[in-house]
Amino acid sequence: xxxxxxxxxxxxxxxxxxxxxxxxxxxxxxxxxxxxxxxxxxxxxxxxxxxxxxxxxxxxxxxxxxxxxxxxxxxxxxxxxxxxxxxxxxxxxxxxxxxxxxxxxxxxxxxxxxxxxxxxxxxxxxxxxxxxxxxxxxxxxxxxxxxxxxxxxxxxxxxxxxxxxxxxxxxxxxxxxxxxxxxxxxxxxxxxxxxxxxxxxxxxxxxxxxxxxxxxxxxxxx
Length: 222
Prior knowledge:
By secondary structure, the chain is an alpha+beta fold. It is built from five helices and twelve strands. The strands form three sheets. The protein has a five-stranded antiparallel β-sheet. A five-stranded mixed β-sheet has the order 9-8-7-10-11, with helices on one face. The longest helix is centred in the middle third of the chain and has 27 residues, at 120-146. The two termini are 25 Å apart.
């Protein structure tokens, strides 16, 4: 059976973590996924922390620190960049390009992966896409000059990664940067409303427990 998720607000997550530590539960922290895992009676449990809770790579939490993070959402033809401090959005920008082929509804990059060389209209779409990635990376460079980011929250389809990191204007971070946090949620076309929806999702903690476990029996939820 698939495990079930219980979404928790930041104060509830703090209470759960405190209770687990007081009970000396052997917690394992994954910095990349910003998540604790542990076992109870041979079953696996996990707790994804809200992005607003700071932790170093060893899992040492600092509840007083206000987390500053970048959000980068990329899909074919559009991208969103946002700067957040704790639960405040300090800056945001949406980028778009003429990358999607009419009628087929498929991006030019995906089309080339399957069909090969392109015609004049296709080259225009590719040039527009390249310009979008340059503009996105220019914006990112500016934000990195202005802020010291604790995390880089990131969602980008795999087929677009070479175009983001191989753009003429380079991004200010490497694709293997340890601060990257891949958002564990499906991304729709990234406009400002979608970005705010992602922020609300990241502000919540997610306790994942086995389907057969009754949450009322968990001491850290009482």
